[in-house]
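Take a look at my tokenised protein here and describe the backbone shape.
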Amino acid sequence: MDAVVWIVLGVLLAVAEIFTTTLFLIMFGAGAFAAAGAAALGAPVAVQALVFAVVSALSLVVVRPVIRRHTRSALESGEQPFGVEAIEGSTALVLERVDAEHGLVKIDGELWTARPYDTTQTFEPGQRVRVIKVRGATALVWQDDVSSAGELPEARG
């Protein structure tokens, strides 16, 4: 019976981790599953609790930092970005008018659908814009000329 309680606790912690994405609760879930294993082997409740505490603590101290280091983006870790991360921050040439409804830009020789980062802006063909973010297959762009556009969106309050 103790094993079932630990398994239910482990599943609840794993499900809760899905909603928090902090890699914190899942470590306690691993401890609960280890305690379930101890319970299945006939260990007393005190040993089960000790297994839970030790496995949870070791997971937090050893495993969590390794996982977090591997899940950081290339921009955060200082590595060479690739894929969508490489496009964010680059300049693009407007090929078709970019407004809140439609638009087309050329980024490093590739055609991308585009929308303005600030939906009140529009960009005409021939203008240079900066890619602020990529959502799906759509580039969110901002006027590239900082002196005429004012501050970049990250600096706005």
Observations:
- The first helix runs from residue 2 to 20.
- The chain has two domains: 3-75, 90-143.
- The radius of gyration is 25 Å.
